[in-house]
Amino acid sequence: MREDDAKELSRFTTELQRETERGAAIVGASFIDTRLGETLAAFLCDGPTTEALVFGGNAPLGTFSARIDAAAALALIDEHEKHECHIIRKVRNEFAHRLHGISFKDDRISGLCNNLKCDYPSDTPITPRDLFINSVVTITSSLFYRPEHALQAKIKPKIWFDKEFFRWRKITDEPPSKDGQPIMLFGKSSTGRPVKP
After folding, report:
1. Which pLDDT belongs to residue 184?
2. Which domains does the chain carry?
3. What's the whole-model pTM score?
């Protein structure tokens, strides 16, 4: 990791550890959510369609859940990253949707955190909050340069068929070629009866 980025990640980690229970869940998930959006935008074709799809007001890929699944479907994240991101998202949602009386000691949240699979750096007893922060920092590190890597594999606009293929024409002016290529005809003959190919 580049030196300046390592310092930024270190500051992020320090601030995350100082956050309240709710703050840690929301801030931790937010960075990953944003990075996934940037990764998808870097990978998809440039233009207003991608902007609307990922960042627009009612963007289909504007939610954390949709971004995780889309990134996985496009092979922009692996199965382990997908698993961790979804659990981080679920923990975030628990904190975001309950007004009070919630912490990492809550049975539902501690159960989610215990399903996180990122390697932990020590053998000392760890809390659900420790597991959550460890996973957030690990996945954040993993995705830090993912938009740059996705940019290298960016999807380019593609022309599937030449416009000439779909041009209407009169067979009296341009009879079908004799090269054996199949053709499809629409319309009526001069007698009003259907044209037989």
Report:
1. 65
2. 3-152 (1.20.120.330)
3. 0.82
